[in-house]
Amino acid sequence: MKVLWVFLRLVFYAYCAISVLSIGVIAWITLPIFTKIFFNSWNPAKFARKVYPILFSILNIFINHLSKKEYRKHFSVPIKSAPIMEPSIDKLILQKQWQGNRYDCNGCLDCCIKAECPMIDFETRQCMSYGSFFYKYFNCGRFPANQFLIEFYGCKKWEVKKSI
Questions:
Q1: Is 41 left (phi over 0), alpha (psi -120 to 50) or beta?
Q2: Phi, psi values for residue 94, rounded to 5°
Q3: Using one digit for the tens of pLDDT, what is the confidence trace for 145-158?
Q4: Deepest in the core among 13, 27, 46, 50, taking most CB within 10 A?
Q5: Domain residues for 68?
Q6: 88-99 pLDDT, tens digit each
Q7: CA dihedral 66, 69, 70, 76 (to 10 degrees)
């Protein structure tokens, strides 16, 4: 399975690079694929307005990743890691004051806003990418992965389990 996960991530990276370098032309030509990857939907009309914000975000992440060593801590998903929908409950527990369950963010968008994520639906206060390839294979599904991310993004839901 690890070979498949590596392959899919590499194809995704190539697709994003080609889409950015073509100034969005490739994303527009393959819009149903684009919306399936980022929104888990084959309905391109519903998400077409998000093409350029996402491509700009990808370019911004790439530039920051190259130019700021500290920034790399935010986007450190090992290329051979499994796709997941939630952070590891082996490492994290819900904070005592958390009002929701462990499967949703209960309308909290703090980390998404701070990350300037273009996939936030502010009307419903939900992630439009939830459950998509992007969500499962990259940072969203595994957020927060460590204490650094909890502190930086001010996560009110999770805390790292104490070692005994």
A1: beta
A2: -70, 140
A3: 888 888 888 888 99
A4: 27
A5: 2-160
A6: 888 888 888 888
A7: 70
Name the nearest CA neighbour of 37 among 22, 25, 21, 55.
55
SS3 letters across 38-49? HHCCCCHHHHHH
Bond from prior residue into 32 cis (ω within 30 degrees of 0): no
Domain count for the chain: 1
- For tokens 């369950």, the residue is 101
- 80 in helix, strand or coil? coil
Helix axes 2-21, 51-67, angle to 10 degrees: 110
DSSP symbol at 59: H
CB 157 within 8 A of CB 105: yes
Smallest CA-to-CA distance from 130 within 41, 53, 50, 43 is with 41
User: Quick check: 131 pLDDT over 60?
Assistant: yes
Q: What is the pLDDT averaged over residues 83-91?
A: 87
Q: Tokens in use for 110?
A: 């703090």
